[in-house]
């Protein structure tokens, strides 16, 4: 139980620090996801598609004109390094940098989940898509994109996390809703 409380505090602290970094990127005209990708590749000295948290992360932050204290940089490095391997991949970095989805977008992702979870089990399983056209292909694609736990089922949190990752690249709420409506025939 104390581990969960500590993890929640760490998540909140990381969210706050990444929020400060995000605000500075916006303030300095960060140029969006494509610009971040370029700066990431520039900083990725060894071309492993990962940011070394000790050497390359400070370089990325300098490229982005981010002012961060040495103490907060150390906190970000420690909090991002959940598996203690000293690095973070680009997608995970963007995930932590991305703002949370607004309530409207979460509401529409929940509508998608509710539609796909036919038996109301709280999990999307292959059987839930059985009557859909191209069910196997759609399910396999959905699992490939969303099933972070690798258990062959998708829960609500995994679907929301997937859409949270792509949400920053979709400018308007209207387009986000249209995309979900068309993709899932809502």
Automatic annotation (TrEMBL):
Could you list this entry's UniProt keywords, alphabetically sorted.
Answer: Calcium, Metal-binding, Repeat
| PANTHER family associated with the record | CALCYPHOSIN, CALCYPHOSINE LIKE
Molecular-function GO terms, alphabetical: calcium ion binding
Q: What is this protein called?
A: Calcyphosin-like protein
- InterPro entries (alphabetical): Ca-bind (IPR051581), EF-hand-dom_pair (IPR011992), EF_Hand_1_Ca_BS (IPR018247), EF_hand_dom (IPR002048)
Domain EF-hand: start-end pairs: 68-103, 134-169
Question: Does this UniProt record's set of keywords contain Calcium?
Answer: yes
- Pfam families, per database record: EF-hand_5 (PF13202), EF-hand_7 (PF13499)
């Amino acid at each position: 139980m104390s581990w969960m409380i500590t993890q929640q505090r760490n998540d909140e602290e990381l969210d706050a620090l990444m929020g400060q970094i995000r605000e500075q990127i916006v303030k300095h005209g960060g140029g969006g996801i494509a610009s971040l990708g370029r700066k990431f590749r520039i900083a990725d000295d060894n071309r492993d598609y990962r940011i070394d948290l000790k050497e390359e992360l400070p370089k990325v932050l300098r490229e982005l004109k981010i002012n961060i204290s040495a103490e907060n940089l150390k906190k970000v490095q420690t909090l991002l390094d959940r598996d203690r391997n000293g690095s973070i991949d680009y997608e995970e970095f963007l995930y932590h940098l991305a703002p949370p989805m607004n309530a409207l977008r979460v509401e529409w992702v929940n509508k998608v989940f509710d539609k796909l979870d036919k038996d109301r089990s709280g999990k999307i399983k292959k059987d839930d898509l059985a009557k859909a056209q191209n069910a196997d292909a759609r399910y396999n694609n959905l699992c490939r994109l969303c099933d972070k736990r690798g258990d062959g089922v998708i829960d609500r949190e995994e679907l929301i996390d997937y859409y949270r990752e792509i949400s920053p690249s979709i400018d308007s709420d209207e387009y986000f809703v249209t995309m979900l409506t068309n993709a899932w025939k809502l």
